[in-house]
């Protein structure tokens, strides 16, 4: 069971392996997207159809799971599905339901563990294979793998790496788990943190924050929702930024602006904007932007 891109490597690995047989794929219904609201298939549906796997798209699995009874699965694997599983579904397989989660549980239970780890400035994260229960990512942990969060990482690069790492960990874990050779470890609820869903408005830059915090925000929100500020009342998207130790700039105030970037003061340090896009304009490197949009010394972003 899965919907988003994160689940596709796990599906591919399960289908390619001689250790497992994929009886069916369950994903969410096609959803309208774009200005014309044309229905688009989820990534997992595309992958399942490419592999000619049986496919089910219930609107609400809790109300439409009779087909699972007929399949009689030994194990249900879930990754980025986007719906809660009811107790009848959780109890259906002989070996229960397991989930591929993009964090080192109990840290970052919830919808956005990858973005939150970057946003909070962590230098390490990972994937946890866990038993599923009715709570939100609260089940016992079966296996884990760690990976560093590199300075060059953003949410997209880390997402892609964790998806691949998770798929490998999954296929390595299943044989021992179903054989009863692994004792799952209960989570320490006192150490749990919650990774709430990311919203578009979270991309707005607060220049009173430190340069490192805003840099982490930009990395966490790439590719969506991105980070933005305002210049003369108009939206300004910041596409590539890096922290600088430049001092003596008030939050939001303009500093040096040249081919190396546009320095903007923060609560601590400064942020160098290397690529940006004004409202209705093209994505430009800093020098190209400045050529068509000279910034007076008294410019303040906000």
Gist of the model:
The chain is 25% helix and 25% strand. It is α+β, with helices and mostly antiparallel strands. The protein folds into two domains: 5-195, Rossmann fold, CATH 3.40.50.170; 200-292, Methionyl-tRNA Fmet Formyltransferase, Chain A, domain 2.
SSE layout and pairing:
Layout: H1 8-16, E1 25-26, E2 31-33, E3 38-40, H2 43-50, E4 55-56, H3 66-71, E5 76-78, H4 87-90, E6 97-101, E7 109-110, H5 113-119, E8 124-131, E9 141-148, H6 155-178, E10 194-195, H7 211-220, E11 227-231, E12 234-244, E13 254-258, E14 261-265, E15 270-278, E16 284-285, H8 286-292
Parallel strand pairs: 1-4, 5-6, 7-10
Antiparallel strand pairs: 2-3, 6-8, 8-9, 11-12, 12-15, 13-14, 14-15, 15-16
Task: Describe the overall structure.
The protein has helices spanning 8-16, 43-50, 66-71, 87-90, 113-119, 155-178, 211-220, 286-292, and strands at residues 25-26, 31-33, 38-40, 55-56, 76-78, 97-101, 109-110, 124-131, 141-148, 194-195, 227-231, 234-244, 254-258, 261-265, 270-278, 284-285. The protein is an alpha+beta fold and 302 residues long. The protein folds into two domains: 5-195, 3-Layer(aba) Sandwich (Rossmann fold); 200-292, Formyl transferase, C-terminal domain (Methionyl-tRNA Fmet Formyltransferase, Chain A, domain 2). Strands 11, 12, 13, 14, 15 and 16 form a six-stranded antiparallel beta sheet that branches. Strand 2 (31-33) and strand 3 form a beta hairpin. Helix 1 (8-16) runs parallel beside helix 6 and helix 5 packs antiparallel against helix 7. The radius of gyration is 23 Å and the shape is elongated.
